[in-house]
Amino acid sequence: TPPVTVICRHLLRVFRSQLSEWLIFGSVNDPYGEFFINSDGEFIADKYPTILPPSLANDILFAGKAVQKGDAHLSQKLEERFFKRFEEIADADLLGDIDVEVENLVHDIWGFISAERWRHMSEDFGLLEHLHLARDVLLLGRGELFGSFLENLLVDGRYILDSPISSSASEVRNLCHAVNVAFLSAARSVGFDEERLAKRFKLTLSMKPSKGIEAALDSQVESSEQQSSSTQLPIFTSWDCLR
To answer: How many Cα atoms are found within 13 Å in the side-chain-facing hemisphere of 9?
Structure first.
């Protein structure tokens, strides 16, 4: 009936207005607590409208949060690009039981925000450069870094980390310093920027093995007790404390 249609259109207009505030400005204009995201940015499942597919909920939630964490330029770009589109669909009817106009608009906004965040991270913060550096270090380049690092750890034909774990904090600190010097020297020899690398990566030594190594040893102890008491168990060395 006409009165019901008028009411539905009014409700849709209010909902779309609230949604535009969240997606474009990252703010919630909801004096009566009707919107499905509260002022703290928390999702309220029982208020999520049935006119939108459930799969869209996360996109809406995290798009608004991305806007909140972004700068004013992001909101300005969103307003310039999408605010008019919200105005154009303000009185649009539903297609069946689904708000297709809003669904399409949310997808476009989500794609735009994702592209802007990626551009911001890659261009302004040099994300790709950081990822390449992490790859080269964690994968040890093509092997040259690994080989040079091991070579630098050799002293009189023996690796400095072959020694048993020291109980002296000063000895551990000195050994840690020697390991990092060896690592940076190896990095320099294979063409890394030593100064830049030193700011982002640091090897550390503790006075006890890592939990994973201790767990593996416990497993070996249990196995040896079941098999033979004469089984020789490995001795921890400083290698086991390297992180």
So the answer is: 11
Question: If you average pLDDT over residues 192-216, what whole number do you get?
Answer: 69
pLDDT band at 234 (very low <50, low <70, confident <90, very high): low
Q: Residue 152: how many CA atoms within 13 Å on its side-chain side? A: 20
Q: Which residue has the higher pLDDT, 21 or 176?
A: 21
Provide the whole-model pTM. Answer: 0.55
Q: How far apart are CA 162 and CA 236, in angstroms?
A: 9
- Residue 227 confidence class, pLDDT cut points 50, 70, 90: low
* Nearest residue to 212 via CA among 176, 240, 179, 172: 240
- Return d(Cα 2, Cα 24) in angstroms, integer: 32
Full DSSP string of 181-207: HHHHHHHHHTT--HHHHHHH----B-S
The set of residues, in sequence order, having a beta carbon less than 8 Å from that of 70 and lying 6+ positions away, is: 26, 116, 117, 120
